[in-house]
């Protein structure tokens, strides 16, 4: 089970805050001239929230956003945006659609790394909207190349295109240098998880993989999964060095199998360049091996998987990550 919780996922689903509480930093937030600290302002938001006063909470959130923009505090920009879209969804008619449209506008001017967090949020918001409204969206006639301004009229493929686009834009190389520990306001994690998922790129890769690999939403409504018959190459279960040199033929723009492959390949390629970071490398590799073990339609895949697992077992027999390897083998 994943030990990671990315708060933007929770907000994208428009559910309550974690445990009803805020994970606030207590230090390094002081600012002169009698300005309130971020912690003090977020406490006001929490107080209004607990009293059932979302509009008052939103007013404070907007002040936090203005302060964060002035101070170029990327983490606070994203956090305040999360709350803003959440309250917008609650307070306004058609709030979900408006929140998505607002983020599409805001993202164009977001500074620095904030943009990539925002793309991840936008991908989650589109995905959540599609999942919650799938039974209606699935019945719509495909619009081909025409994209209406109102997302309430979009067909399924338009949503999938947006989901894919924003997940891939979130996976920027700059995040490979960003430790998850730098973003305590946005990312909650257990102590041991940092070794396995040390960078924001690792975390976002894992999130994108989980979305693309789960298949179409049609499974949840109509009882069948995406067609995985095109995944036939047993070398997808070969050693990591072999896998990253492979290709996958894309069937169409919304081929989740293709994007699952791209995310796993890029994630593993990054980790192979950082081989000294053993736990992170093996975590990415086990994710890849077990996905293809379950999904390749080729009897030779099992043989390749066994060989790859035996290789990992020999390479890391004395490393603590061997526990994870043995868990997968069993």
Overview features:
330 residues, mainly alpha, two-stranded antiparallel ribbon, 58% helix
Biggest β-sheet strands, sense, barrel: 2 strands, antiparallel
Distance between the termini: 16 Å
Q: What is the helix content?
A: 55-70%
The string of secondary-structure elements, in order, is: EHHHHHHHHEHHHHHHHH
User: Tally of extended strands?
Assistant: 2
Question: What proportion of the residues form beta strands (DSSP E)?
Answer: under 5%
Averaged pLDDT: 82
Structural class: mainly alpha
Instruction: Provide a count of the helices.
Output: 16
User: What shape does the CA trace take?
Assistant: globular
Contiguous runs where pLDDT drops below 50 for at least 5 residues:
1-34, 218-226
> What strand line-up does the widest sheet have?
1-2
The whole-angstrom Rg is 21 Å
SSE diagram, text form:
Elements: E1 4-6, H1 7-12, H2 38-50, H3 54-71, H4 74-91, H5 95-106, H6 114-132, H7 134-137, H8 156-170, E2 187-189, H9 193-196, H10 200-213, H11 218-222, H12 240-243, H13 256-272, H14 278-295, H15 300-315, H16 322-329
Antiparallel strand pairs: 1-2
Helix pairs in contact: 2-3, 3-4, 4-5, 4-6, 5-6, 6-8, 10-13, 13-14, 14-15, 15-16
Q: How would you characterize this protein structure?
A:
This protein has a domain of 104 residues. Helix content is 58%, strand content 2%. It contains 16 helices and two strands. The chain has a two-stranded antiparallel ribbon with strand order 1-2. Helix 5 packs antiparallel against helix 6, helix 10 packs antiparallel against helix 13 and helix 14 packs antiparallel against helix 15. The radius of gyration is 21 Å and the shape is globular.
């Amino acid at each position: 089970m994943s030990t990671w919780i990315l708060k933007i996922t929770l907000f994208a689903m428009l559910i309550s805050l974690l445990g009803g509480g805020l994970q606030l930093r207590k230090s390094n937030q002081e600012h002169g001239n009698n300005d309130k600290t971020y912690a003090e302002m977020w406490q006001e938001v929490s107080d209004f929230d607990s009293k059932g006063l979302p509009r008052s909470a939103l007013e404070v959130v907007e002040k936090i956003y203005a302060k964060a923009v002035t101070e170029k505090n990327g983490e606070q920009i994203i956090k305040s945006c999360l709350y803003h879209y959440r309250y917008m969804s609650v307070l306004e008619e058609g709030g979900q659609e408006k929140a998505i449209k607002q983020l599409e506008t805001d993202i164009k001017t977001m500074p620095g790394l904030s943009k990539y967090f925002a793309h991840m949020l936008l991908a989650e918001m589109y995905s959540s909207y599609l999942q919650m409204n799938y039974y209606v969206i699935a019945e719509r006639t495909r619009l081909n190349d025409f994209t209406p301004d109102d997302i309430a009229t979009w067909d399924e493929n338009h949503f999938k295109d947006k989901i894919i686009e924003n997940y891939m834009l979130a996976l920027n190389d700059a995040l490979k240098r960003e430790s998850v520990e730098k973003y305590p306001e946005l990312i909650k994690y257990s102590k041991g998880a940092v070794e396995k998922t040390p960078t924001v790129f690792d975390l976002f890769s894992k999130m994108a993989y989980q979305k693309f690999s789960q298949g179409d939403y049609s499974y949840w409504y109509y009882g069948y999964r995406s067609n995985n018959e095109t995944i036939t190459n047993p070398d997808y279960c070969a050693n990591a060095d072999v896998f990253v040199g492979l290709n996958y033929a894309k069937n169409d723009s919304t081929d989740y199998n293709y994007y699952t492959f791209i995310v796993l390949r890029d994630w593993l390629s990054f980790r192979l360049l950082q081989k000294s970071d053993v736990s992170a490398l093996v975590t990415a590799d086990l994710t890849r091996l077990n996905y293809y073990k379950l999904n390749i339609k080729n009897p030779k895949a099992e043989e390749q998987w066994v060989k790859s697992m035996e290789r990992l077992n020999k390479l890391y027999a004395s490393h603590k990550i061997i526990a994870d390897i043995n868990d997968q083998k069993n």
